[in-house]
Amino acid sequence: MNAAVLDLPKIEGSAERNGSLADFIWFRTGGPAEWLAKPRDVADLSGFLRALDPAVPVMPVGVGSNLIVRDGGVPGIVVRLPKSFSAVTVEPGNRVRAGAGAMGITVASKARDAGIAGLEFLRGIPGTTGGAVRMNAGAYGRDVSDILVEAVLVLRDGTIETWPAARFGYTYRHSETPEGAVVVEALFEGVAGDPRAIGAEMDRIAEEREASQPLRSRTGGSTFKNPPGTKAWKLIDEAGCRGLCVGDAQVSEKHCNFLLNLGNASAADIEALGEEVRRRVREASGVSLEWEIQRVGRFAGDSGRQNVGVEQGNA
Asked: Does 90 share its domain with 79?
């Protein structure tokens, strides 16, 4: 991706030059990572970041369920945590400790089995724990900020810190997680509950998602944040955007706050469609929709290592 090859420090896991991101992010499109790094464990990640040139950008990525990777790819280092970061354990006090690579459904299921209520909404979040902590993910009336006790981060300089929930400065779908920091673990707290009732609520969430969202499609999840007092999908529908296409990118007809890759859409097509939706909604209602999907990397044809994007996260 760059004429000069980045000289990487030692990593005990793996590092792949021009590592494909389109192989696993949900949209299945976009450019590669300059380097795709998979650390073996927290100590490996810490040592790697400590030795890495401070000028090199670092971006954590989980399963890419809420991400547009631009066609020019992502400069610097993309960190993807392997399965060794996915352990989930139950602790006293109705608490659940989850590695950042653990999926929301895994965390919710572990809590259910232990009779811990309040984490059911994680069943409706298709990303990893790390991404959920970073972006204050939420669904069905609850957010991560409601249940987080603390989280462990590896900062860009390799320092390992444990942050209480209040330090993240949570707002709607946003936190003050430092740029280049990687969330590696989270501690959640719920309340005692009946596993049968918890399971029934998780089943309800699953059924509602299946009925209302295009889960079998190449998508990036919820595209725009809900403006105060209304729903983004409603404004999009009222602006006549349901089914709107740019190239092979389409506004879902099933849920019009979802954008789809019908098969051969470029990241540029998807982002252009989103901007057209924003334009039409603004003209129709006066509301400027804010992106919830994170758009990262460079546009095709851009050069240089400087990262071009909006928000970064390990969703």
From this structure: no
Per the annotation, the verdict on 280 as an active-site residue is no
Of the candidates 168, 161, 204, 166, the residue with the CA atom closest to the CA atom of residue 46: 161
Q: Is 283 a catalytic residue?
A: no
Phi, psi of 55 (to 5 degrees): -80, -15
Please tell me the number of Cα atoms within 13 Å of 18 on its side-chain side. 6
- Choosing from 70, 112, 173, 278, which is the catalytic residue? 173
Rounded to two decimals, the pTM is 0.91
- Convert the pLDDT of each residue in 222-240 to its tens digit: 999 999 999 999 999 999 9
Task: Indicate the number of domains in the chain.
Answer: 2
Query: Which of 201, 271, 292, 311 does the annotation list as catalytic?
Result: 292
Residue 199: closest CA among 269, 98, 135, 114: 114
Residue at 62 is within a domain: yes
pLDDT digits (tens, 9 = 90+) for 242-273: 999 999 999 999 999 999 999 999 999 999 99
The answer to whether residue 37 sits within a structural domain is yes
Residue 127 lies in a domain: yes
In terms of domains, do 137 and 50 share one? no
Q: Tens digits of per-residue pLDDT, 162-193? A: 999 999 999 999 999 999 999 999 999 999 99
The reply to whether 159 and 185 lie within a common domain is yes
Instruction: Flag whether pLDDT at 314 surpasses 80.
Output: no
109 is annotated as an active-site residue: no
Domain that holds residue 96: 86-197
Q: Which of 222, 252, 280, 295 is catalytic?
A: 222
